[in-house]
Amino acid sequence: MINEEKNGNEIHFVKTKRPRVFTNALSKLVLMYMGKRDGKKGIPSDRNNAEWMSPTLRKEYAKIDEKMAKVWYDVDEKCGELYAKTESLISDFEQNALEIKRIHTYILREGILYKDVIGNNHTLPKELHDMINAKRNSEGKCDALGLRLRRYNEYNKLIHNAKEHFFRKRIKLKSDFQEIKRNYQVIITLESELDIFFWELCSNIERRTSWYWQGVLLKHPQKNIMPQTPPKANNNYINNIHKERREGLKNKIASIETCHKEILELEYVE
User: Fold this and answer.
1) 3-class SS at 11?
2) Could you read off the pLDDT of 225-241 as tens digits, one per residue?
3) How far lies 36's CA from each of 31, 50, 51, 67, in Å?
4) CA-to-CA distance for 88 and 43, rounded, in angstroms?
5) What is the pLDDT of residue 143?
6) Cα separation of 195 and 236, whole Å?
7) 3-state secondary structure (DSSP) of residue 3
8) Tell me: the pLDDT tens digits for 77-114?
9) Which is it for strands 2-7 and 10-15: parallel, antiparallel or unpaired?
10) Phi, psi dihedrals of residue 152, rounded to the nearest 5°
11) CA atoms within 13 A on the CB side of 32
12) What are phi and psi of 15, to 5 degrees?
């Protein structure tokens, strides 16, 4: 297991205690003895227990949740803040991307409209065409160059502000995207080792239950009809919770990667 510790912009990883159960020769002898003891008593039994589960087996399988819960708690102390921060960044990213697209559309539309206003395009909507003609008639005695300069300044002030806003937003979007990706990699690094611990622990528990079951089969009165391997228990509930959380974040990041690419491919607005 790895814990995350931050020092400025650097991330250091230090090892912590991993979940363990005994799988040595002594534990094998103890578990086989427990199996023989239960077998003599007819435990487990198929009476109202089609899975042949016994209290000893339930106790062994419960160790998976018990030991992994402690490890997951340590991870959540480190990853919980990262998840919350990343979710907030994704929300800001999506809102920022929407604003960038709207600003980009506005800039392109205003660029086309400006060319029509400076020129004398008769394909303009009637209301805009009448307004422009009325303005030109009222400015008939003014210097033509001065008129064009004034119109350009009126237009340029708005469009210049829009372009500045567009580029600020895009810089912020790139920065948020990089931070989201960094956070995700740290989360994956922290939690991927948990998956390894989980499966190691499951493997060791299966070894212990198999030793117990060997003892049961040696002494149980119904050993001829009993399954030759111990019944299984579904103890990956905690692991599934965090796996689903990671998958949810992974899907969101895949979505913003597509959005990020679309933003970078927008037509240049200078």
Assistant:
1) strand
2) 999 999 988 877 777 88
3) 9, 20, 19, 27
4) 53
5) 59
6) 10
7) strand
8) 888 899 999 999 999 999 999 999 999 888 888 765 55
9) antiparallel
10) -65, -45
11) 10
12) -80, 145
